[in-house]
Every structure is written in structure tokens, then in C-alpha cells.
Amino acid sequence: GAGVSQSPRYKVAKRGQDVALRCDPISGHVSLFWYQQALGQGPEFLTYFQNEAQLDKSGLPSDRFFAERPEGSVSTLKIQRTQQEDSAVYLCASSLVAGGPREQYFGPGTRLTVT
Amino acid sequence: AQTVTQSQPEMSVQEAETVTLSCTYDTSESDYYLFWYKQPPSRQMILVIRQEAYKQQNATENRFSVNFQKAAKSFSLKISDSQLGDAAMYFCAYRSASNFGNEKLTFGTGTRLTIIP
Which one of B103, B106, B111 makes the best mutation probe of the A interface by having the most chain A beta carbons within 10 Å? Predict the structure, then answer.
């Protein structure tokens, strides 16, 4: 079956522009995660949804970052007034249910470059 | 807060040989899960192996096995009979098991594994 998909795969934004990154999780997956991966680093947690409820947004670096999953499936990560430090790969992951040692399935990521 | 440390930024191994990647972590929790993820150059992260902290037996998946030392907070990955397709970044990750809603993974900085033909 289809895996996690993300769009766009690459995004170049001028500093100060707003961007929206989309994640399509695996159908039926309850949990959805966003991670930020800077060059040469491991992914860092941004936020987590269980269905449409955003249960944890402790990793969002500033109030310029906003995520939503209004119908419990597709999610959008929005970054307002982008800054150079926002340049990174943004990874989306989903898992079937909450709890247990459940595998998170990752998408290919969106590489954001802020110029 | 939990932290995960991978002290080997790069490793290389001859094809068909065995290599061990190191991972240590810091936590005050007693119940948690540990994972090794592989990220090939295409960047899609794939689960390699997982370990539940309450299980004493080390997890094994075909050529991949772990050495889980709970008291030492160590979780190393052994790859036997290395193949060219094993070349990738390998990330160690931690997840709490104790809190509902606390599902996030905490990753180390990764180890880049090169396979020498």
C-alpha cells in the first residue's frame, strides 16, 4: 500500500515568506508526527496529533510554527515569516495506533531552504 | 528530559564483515522503548529493530541484532554479513512508555555507515 507522502519535496522561500508543508499519512493511521531535521543532525520532534487532536506541540520552536490536522488525516505544517534558521528537512511520520512500541512510518521529507 | 548519544559520527566496514554501532541514552524512566532507524540517501527513514526495556532478551531481526544493557543505558546495533545496501545513516531513538500522549521519538545525531566492497 501507499506510504506516507509529503509535498512539496523541495521548497525555496525568501526570508519573510510564509510556507505550508503537507503530509498525507498512511490511511487509517491514528497518530501523526512532525519532525525537523537540520543538516547532519538527527530529527527533532515538533508536534504530535492523535486523530485531529494536537496532543503535544512542545517542540514547535516559535509561534511562527503552526500545525493542523482538521479531519484527522492530512496534516499541514505552516511556517510564517520564514527565517534562515528554519532551513531544514521537515519529516512527517504516522503510526497505526497510539501506545506500545509502535513503528512510526516516515515520509520522504520536505527540504526547505530559506534564502 | 531524555537524551540519546551516538558517539561514532562515521563507521565503515568491509562487505560481509560485522560492525557494531554504539548508542547510549539517559533517562530516569524505567519503562521505555528503543529503536534503530536507517536513513538511506533517499532520506526515507526505515525501522530496523526495536527493543522494549522490560524485555531482557535482546531483539534480533535477521542480520540485525542489539545488545541492550539496561543498567548501563546502552543499546548497540550489530550488523552481521554487511551488504552494500546497508550503507546509510543509522539513528538510535528513545520513546517513553509511561505517559499516554507522549509518543515522540528522541533521536541521536546518527552514525553514517559506509560499506567497502
Answer: B103
Distance of CA B117 to CAs A27, A35, A84, B88, Å? 40, 34, 39, 15
**DSSP E strands, A1-115:** 5-7, 10-13, 19-24, 31-37, 44-50, 53-56, 65-68, 75-79, 88-95, 105-106, 110-114
Q: Which three cell numbers stand for residue A59?
A: 517542540
Whether the bond into A8 is cis, omega within 30 of 0? yes
Residue pLDDT, tens place only, A5-62: 999 999 999 999 999 999 999 999 999 999 999 998 999 999 999 999 999 999 999 9
Q: Which residues 16-55 of chain B have a CB within 8 Å of chain A? A: 33, 35, 37, 42-47, 50, 52
Tell me how far apart the alpha carbons of residues A109 and A89 are, in angstroms, rounded to a whole number.
6
User: Which residues in chain A have Cβ-Cβ distances shorter than 8 Å to B104?
Assistant: 33, 45, 48, 56, 59
User: In this predicted structure, what is the pLDDT of residue B12?
Assistant: 97
